[in-house]
From TrEMBL:
SMART domains attached to this UniProt entry: HELICc, POLAc
InterPro entries attached to this UniProt entry: DNA-dir_DNA_pol_A_palm_dom, DNA/RNA_pol_sf, DNA_polymerase_A, Helicase_C-like, HTH_61, P-loop_NTPase, POLQ-like_helical, RNaseH_sf
Gene Ontology MF terms: DNA binding; DNA-directed DNA polymerase activity
Protein name listed in UniProt: Helicase C-terminal domain-containing protein
Length: 1246
């Protein structure tokens, strides 16, 4: 047929679907691409755009699949065309089938596998060829495949069209008119069918005697199609074979057939007898010599025996020779030899012999395997190589590329191996081989999910597969127990860390929380089941010894998830349902305090730490903060920080401070006498009616060496007991608060905490709720200048934290690259940097024994203990690397500065900002009209896809080199538009629109949305969040909003037509400088801008000691880039143009940042050859710089790190261990990090 695309098009235009069967996978994909191109042309200008948008969302779903986005589906799916064959992964098949059922896919090309077990009906079924693979189609398959058209109850009619050559018409006609072939019994195909059947009925106890055999075979289909004598003879032959192979044995005394251990193993594992013999032989030889140094031998044992993968023998031989000697020895041990693979790689046919004879004793060696066995073993080992790579967490796409197989094939092999592993494990169990059973059973999850051993346990949790297990493990959630204890936000953050810090999508966040909740519940179920099993086993053991143990009134496993635990206390002011929800961790935003003043009557000095005590269930914002100066060395000398708290003292968990011997005042006496302590402030950040930020402080957790963690409940503990006089109560309140102020401000006492910045902000204006101080009877006469805010909060005297140390900063200084990649998280740091025993001890010390999930796991007591444990380890590392001065003189004091910057914020001129927005919106509308006029059709300047369609399809502009392919269309980024700027005037319109749209939606949008009116100053103020540890080089960053990349001044014109609207129009010139919209927050304050003159270039001169560069930089009041451009070009300095000066600057900094010739060519708009010449010229002109660049890379390659001013190190392991791309990046980082980090340190030291 000359144009097979017309047949599906007719049905699609009528709004129906088409199934198009092809003979091969390759044919499916190529046909789908051809039809997509045809439909693409036919659908230009179609109004059915909504379907394409839905298809685009399906493409996004395909991108999130483990195997990534298939390029053919990426090309065809947006046009309603897809393919379906066994090469698709399970996730891809689900998405394609869903799109087809919902009408997003109208044409589906498929192989015959679609007709078996997949219900996808269609109006028209088309056969591209009358073949399935290389075989001609038969009547049964034709009817099954054609039956997809016009399914009853789904469509009113259907039709089938088979395309064939003229010489095939007669044969096709005979097939279509032929009757269905008669049914045949599977027992008659070969002896294996009858053998398997007899094995099952004997092992199942259905057949035991000879008469039972006769009665059984009479009930088979085979008996209806053949003579009874033939059927009996077949059954008898099978029984003889089973007895000979020792699956079944005959007892002459009882005249009964029974199964042997081998037979029971075969039946219990669902392996047929033939497979059982092979598995028995493999396992027997493995027990005699198992290779444990590599996973490959174990992978081979769980790889299915008969695989349908036909290897590329030449590739197979190449991969086998690339194996290590250890892995090659595994192949030789199981029967794979290099000569055989070489023979197959050269295409020589192997002679096929008869059925192999197996030694049931397991003693047959590799040298006795005949050719067909060698072929089977080699194919099996080939699949084992693929699965072993998956078990090492190598991506599926890499494995597919390495072995040249389809992704769906790899996934199917992996699933089959997982099932086969469970069968082999059951086989070993029935044989009593516990040694192999343990190995295989533990390996099953690794094979099924493609994970390493350390995360295999996590894959037992429902909804957790390989990628999620790895994400949880990397975040520190490494066992079902830790996941069961973690909060839902913590689990969601670990799973979706890449999208967590992006824009707040409530729907996406709900979905993420839903998945995290399912995983948490699954982990809890596993933990509870294990605990229940252990409890039952323990009680059973005690009972067998005659020991009576009282039973629990309720089992560990609740009967229903909806039933609250009986031992949960319902606290005043909270309903029973809400209390239960807090226990389950369901309400993330709950700010309630769960508290109780209950003290057990049987309390003694040994159980003081078990009291219930007010701890916040959640913090609105994590506590952060710093000190004015820190002396790490003296801290190390003062006490052995490496000593963890003694468990015999602190194993009772947190202790209420008022329960200290001597009461709260006794606690303050003890606290004031220690040389160092760890603390964490419990506070909530609120907004008042007057737009003031109020920090309500609720308590403080404190601990020191070998002490439990004490919790100070400020509203309760600061108020003295034993008096009702309000004046005395306030006086006692102030004295106790003053003592806390004095302790926190002691310069000689070392204080460690986590995220000190926010705690500094809270302690600068601490408030206590008047409602919580009801006993004090707020009376203006008794307040004595204590300010009350909003008639709701009492403002206390501020606290300045001296000699404080932020453990978050310590970890970042020690491991800048690792810690800067993720949001600082104390839980992750504890699990990553502390031994498991120390992490568990800190976890126990900070957990309230009588309080459940929220209070127990998110409280400040836990953070204080974890900070102490981390400090005992990390501070020693800091001192050993001579980095104490760095945190004492630079990073420590900087935290206080950042805290003040966030508190004061920056003012915004809202009126000027709104005027600028109005002008920009007007100009954007003009640009829309101008673009429409230039293009000749309307399109969106905000959509890259529309811009690409206009430039490259409608206007036929050439696609620049390097911009050929984006995700769905050619790239339209700045570099691409720069190449096209002289080819069409619309390009300049697009660039101007992007510049103004970015200014409007970015900077001006952030100002308008984030600026809040301050009642006191009557000015709009923006309070951002400064990040000190977000980059490896130490460069500060800002968020909510980011004001570090505010655009420079832009100028443009807008039309101003006269009243008569004549052809003559005037224009208004506008200059908008967004940086002028930022103003001081207070009257008589000034904003001062300062900039260092070529500071990075000066550091380059300092480190390289290049005399020429030092001479140039030493000249005052001279522009160094102009001088360099003058010397290079031979021009007078006065003749050097601004473009030459800018190109010289870009070039020098490009050298500093490690750019190559190609990147510099793009920067300088010249050819790579010219850029290479400039690089050589630079090296000749500055020989000292060239030598230093080489030495810096060589030193980093030798040491593994670079070292900057003040001894700070940055480890770059990829410079020796990475691939070529990673090594090149590490070399660039080695050079520019030295200057960038040193620049940063020098700026902050000034």
């Amino acid at each position: 047929m000359h144009n097979p695309l017309i047949l599906p098009l007719q049905v699609v235009l009528e709004g129906h679907s088409v199934l198009l069967f092809c003979s091969s996978r390759k044919g499916c994909e190529s046909t789908a691409k051809h039809i997509a191109k045809y439909l693409k042309v036919a659908n230009v200008g179609s109004k059915e755009g909504s379907e394409f948008r839905d298809a685009a969302s399906a493409v996004e779903a395909l991108k999130r699949c483990p195997a990534g986005l298939d390029p053919v589906l990426e090309e065809t799916l947006p046009f309603g065309v897809a393919y379906h064959h066994a090469g698709l992964t399970v996730e891809e098949r689900d998405i394609v089938e869903t799109c087809y059922r919902k009408g997003l896919v109208r044409v589906l090309t498929a192989t015959s596998t679609l007709a078996a077990g997949v219900n996808l009906p269609a109006r028209r079924v088309i056969f591209r060829q009358p073949r399935i693979g290389r075989d001609f189609i038969d009547g049964t398959r034709y009817r099954q495949m054609a039956g997809r058209a016009g399914r009853t109850g789904i469509d009113t009619k259907g039709e089938s069209i088979l395309v064939c050559r003229p010489e095939e018409v007669k044969r096709i006609t005979g097939i279509v008119r032929s009757d269905c072939p008669p049914l045949q019994s599977c027992l008659s195909e070969d002896k294996n069918g009858m053998t398997h059947a007899i094995m099952e009925v004997v092992a199942g106890g259905i057949v035991q005697t000879a008469s039972d055999i006769h009665r059984y075979v009479r009930c088979t289909l085979l008996n209806s199609t053949k003579s009874f004598d033939d059927v009996v003879k077949s059954a008898q032959d099978s029984l003889r074979w089973l007895c000979h192979k020792r699956f079944v044995e005959w007892n002459n005394d009882t005249k009964i057939y029974s199964t042997t251990p081998l037979g029971r193993a075969s039946f219990g594992s669902s392996l047929n007898p033939e497979e059982s013999l092979v598995v028995l032989d493999d396992l027997s030889r493995a027990r005699e010599g198992f290779v444990l140094a590599s996973d490959l031998h174990l992978v081979y044992l769980v790889t299915p025996i008969n695989v349908e993968v036909e290897p590329d023998w030449e590739l197979y031989y190449e991969r086998f020779m690339q194996l290590s000697s250890l892995e090659q020895s595994v192949g030789n041990r199981v029967g794979v030899t290099e000569p055989f693979l070489m023979h197959m790689a050269h295409g020589a046919a192997m002679p096929i012999r008869g059925r192999p004879k197996k030694n049931t004793s397991g003693g047959s060696g590799a040298n006795t395997l005949i050719n067909d066995q060698s072929l089977r073993v080699s194919k099996r080992f080939y699949v084992a190589l693929m699965i072993s790579r998956l078990a090492q967490e190598i991506p599926v796409t890499d494995v597919c590329e390495s072995f040249k197989v389809a992704r769906g094939t790899i996934q199917a092999l992996q699933e089959n191996a997982g099932r086969f592993a469970s069968m082999v494990s059951a086989f070993c169990q029935r044989l009593g081989w516990q040694d192999l059973e343990g190995l295989v059973a533990k390996f099953q999850n690794r094979v099924s999910f493609g994970v390493r051993a350390e995360i295999a346990e996590l894959t037992t949790i429902p909804f957790v597969k390989g990628s999620r297990a790895r994400a949880l493990y990397n975040s520190g959630l490494r066992t079902p127990v830790t996941i069961a204890e973690a909060s839902i936000p913590e689990i969601a953050k670990a799973l979706f860390e890449n999208s967590w810090s992006g824009q707040d999508d409530s729907g996406l966040r709900r979905m993420q929380f839903g998945i995290a909740k399912k995983i948490k519940n699954g982990a809890r179920r596993i933990v509870l089941e294990e605990a229940e099993a252990a409890r039952v086993a323990a009680f059973s053991a005690f009972k067998s010894l005659g020991v009576e143990v009282p039973q629990f009134t309720t089992p560990l496993l609740p009967a229903s998830e909806d039933s609250p635990p009986r031992d949960v206390m319902v606290f005043p002011g909270a309903g029973h349902a809400k209390c239960h929800e807090s226990v389950l961790g369901a309400h993330v935003g709950d700010e309630r305090n769960i508290c109780s003043d209950y003290v057990p009557q049987r309390a003694s000095t040994e159980i003081v730490g078990e009291d219930m005590h007010p701890v916040s269930t959640i913090h609105i914002k994590e506590s952060q903060g710093i000190a004015n100066s820190v002396n790490i060395a003296s801290m190390q000398e003062a006490s052995p920080l490496s000593t963890l708290p003694s468990r015999n003292v602190a194993d009772k968990g947190p202790v209420n401070a008022h329960n200290f011997p001597g009461g709260f005042d006794g606690f303050l006496d003890q606290w004031s006498s220690v040389d160092e302590f760890s603390f964490d402030l419990h506070f909530v950040k609120r907004s008042s009616k007057l737009s003031l930020t109020i920090f309500e402080i609720l308590g403080l957790a404190v601990c020191w060496e070998n002490s439990p963690v004490y919790y100070c409940n400020f509203p309760k503990d600061l108020t003295p007991t034993g008096s009702n006089d309000s004046v005395e109560l306030w006086e006692g309140f102030r004295k106790r608060w003053s003592r806390i102020v004095g302790i926190m401000q002691q310069k000689s006492v070392k204080k460690t905490t986590w995220n000190l910045k926010n705690q500094i902000q809270a302690l600068k204006s601490p408030c206590v709720s008047c409602q919580r101080l009801a006993r004090l009877h707020l009376d203006p006469k008794t307040l004595n200048n204590i300010e009350v805010l909003d008639s709701t909060y009492v403002l206390l005297p501020p606290i300045s934290v001296y000699n404080g140390l932020d453990i978050c900063l310590v970890a970042w200084i020690l491991w800048p690259d690792e810690e800067s990649k993720t949001v600082p998280n104390l839980e992750k740091l504890v699990k990553r940097r502390l031994p498991s025993e120390a992490a568990a001890a800190a976890n126990r010390d900070g957990r309230w024994r009588n309080q459940m999930h929220k209070a127990a796991h998110n409280g400040c007591c836990r953070r204080a203990v974890q900070t102490r444990a981390l400090g005992s380890v990390l501070l020693k590392l800091l001192v050993s690397q001579n980095l104490s001065d760095l945190i004492e003189t630079v990073e420590g004091p900087l935290v206080n500065v950042l805290a003040d910057m966030e508190l004061w914020g920056i003012g915004a001129d809202m009126d000027a900002c709104l005027r600028a927005r109005h002008i920009i919106i007007t100009r954007l509308k003009e640009l829309d009209k101008e673009a429409y006029k230039l293009a000749g059709k309307s399109f969106s300047l905000n959509a890259n896809a529309d811009i690409a369609d206009i430039l490259f399809t409608h206007l036929k502009l050439p696609v620049p080199k390097g911009c050929e392919k984006g995700k769905l269309h050619p790239s339209t980024d700045k570099q691409c538009l720069d190449h096209l700027r002289d080819l069409h005037p619309i390009v300049s319109v697009i660039k101007e629109h992007r510049t103004l749209a970015k200014l409007l939606n970015g900077t001006l949008g952030s100002i308008c949305s984030r600026a809040k009116l301050c009642i006191q100053s009557q000015r709009y103020i923006i309070h951002g969040n400064w990040l000190q540890t977000s980059t490896a080089t130490g460069r500060l960053s800002m968020e909510e909003p980011n004001l570090q990349s505010v655009e420079h001044m832009v100028d443009f014109t807008t039309r101003k037509n006269d009243k008569d609207f004549t052809s003559m129009s005037m224009v208004d010139h506008h200059e908008i400088n967004a940086r002028e919209f930022f103003v001081p927050t207070q009257e008589n304050w000034l904003l001062v801008t300062a900039d260092y003159s070529q500071i990075e270039l000066r550091f380059m001169a300092h480190f390289s000691k290049d005399p020429v560069l030092i001479e140039l930089l030493s000249k005052p009041d001279v522009d160094v880039f102009t001088m360099i451009a003058s010397r290079w070009s031979g021009k007078e300095e006065s003749l050097v143009s601004s473009k030459d000066r800018d190109n010289t600057k870009r070039f020098i900094y490009g050298i500093l940042y490690g750019m190559g010739a190609n990147s510099l060519a793009e920067q300088l708009e010249c050819s790579p050859a010219e850029a290479a010449q400039k690089i050589q010229s630079f090296k000749r002109f500055f020989p000292g710089v060239s030598s230093w660049l080489q030495q810096a890379v060589a030193s980093c390659r030798q040491k593994g790190y670079i070292e900057t001013l003040m001894g700070r190190r940055r480890f770059l392991s990829k410079i020796t261990a990475g691939n070529s791309r990673e090594k090149a990046q590490a070399q660039r980082q080695a050079v520019n990090s030295i200057c960038q980090v040193s620049k940063r340190l020098s700026c902050f030291c000034c």
